[in-house]
Structure formats: C-alpha cells, structure tokens
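Work Package 3 (structural annotation) set out to generate three-dimensional models for the target panel prioritized at the project kickoff. During this period the team completed the workflow that converts sequence records into discrete structure tokens, so that structures can be stored uniformly alongside our sequence database. As a representative example, we reproduce one entry of 123 residues exactly as it appears in the project archive.
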Amino acid sequence: MKSLAELAAIRDKMQNKVNIREGEGGTRVVVGMATCGIAAGARPVLNAFVEEVAGAGLSDSVTVTQTGCIGICQYEPVVEVFEAGKEKVTYVKMSPEKVKKVMEEHIKNGKVVSEYTIDMAQK
C-alpha cells in the first residue's frame, strides 16, 4: 500500500492529464482513434501529445482529445489541430517523433509543419 502522500501525488499527476484531455483550451488537438488509427499507431501519438502538452505547461491553453474515424484511413495516424480564428490543420502519418516537431513549431510558435500535412502527403 502506498502512503497517502504518494497516492496524492499520483492523483495530482493523473488529474493534470485528465484536464489536458477534457479541458477547454484555446487550441484543440484531435487524434483519430478509430480501429484504423489505433492499428496504425495512434495511441502512442495521443500519449505523446498529452505528455508534451503537460511537459510544456500548456494544459491551460491546449486540449488533447480523440475522435473516431476521420475518413482518410490511408493516412493514419491522423491529427487535426483546431485554433480559434484559424483554419483546421490536418497532420497525417504521425508518429511520436513527429509530435515533438509539431509541438515545438506549430503549437508553441504558430508555424504549421507543412511537410506533415495532408497537402504535402499527396505530392
């Protein structure tokens, strides 16, 4: 059995993750988690976004959620980024490694990582 302090620390850590997944942040990151997405590796991508947002201290302004099928299975894992007043950005064939670049360039600095978007994937 863990001590009360250890249990409280675990609760606080997990509560932060829940807030990131259910919050009302200004930026919303949505990971396609239908069967096709999960089979293509969407779960580690979702987890990487949650960890990166928490690690960057952005849980007040960025929400990470999941959805079902986005409809472009051949490009899974698919991530959509919604920002107030801006057009949705769809990232395709994502990986936990790509999450780091999207977080640094797009989420933190506002510059879309165009080589990971669907327009570049079709070329």
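The chain has a mean pLDDT of 86.
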